[in-house]
Design brief:
The chain has no helices and eleven strands. By secondary structure, the protein is an all-beta fold.
């Protein structure tokens, strides 16, 4: 069993940067495939970024070049660094984990077995 605890949500001004964290318990982050998804009000949850256990990454077109997903094995934490934030980035952000250790970054929600509770990011002046 893996429990994911997200942190770092909050109110951010447009153009600023922000960082989300996700710490899994019950499994070492180095062996997990991890992903970030988000759900804006009135919209379906969508893929944001993913990182494999071999550190291959993949990003949604809407965040490519602005967001970075990374892993710190020493801290057993995965991060989502968000730069040049826009109001349309406002959403609840979810961390997800898969234990099969697939070598390709996963964009499908169904590929992830475990989910965090979500953390709200609001981009507004």
């Amino acid at each position: 069993q893996v429990q994911l605890v997200e942190s770092g949500g909050g109110l951010v001004q447009p153009g600023n940067s922000h960082r989300l964290s996700c710490a899994p318990s019950g499994r070492t982050v180095s062996v997990l495939g991890m992903g970030w998804f988000r759900q804006a009000p009135g919209k379906e949850r969508e893929f944001v970024a993913a990182i494999t256990r071999t550190d291959d990454t993949l990003y949604a077109d809407s965040v490519k070049g602005r967001f970075t997903i990374s892993r710190d094995n020493a801290k057993n934490t995965v991060y989502l660094y968000m730069n040049s934030l826009k109001p349309e980035d406002t959403a609840v952000y979810y961390c997800a984990a898969e234990t099969a250790g697939r070598l390709s970054p996963l964009v499908e929600e169904g590929a992830y077995e475990y989910w965090g509770q979500g953390t709200q990011v609001t981009v507004s002046s």
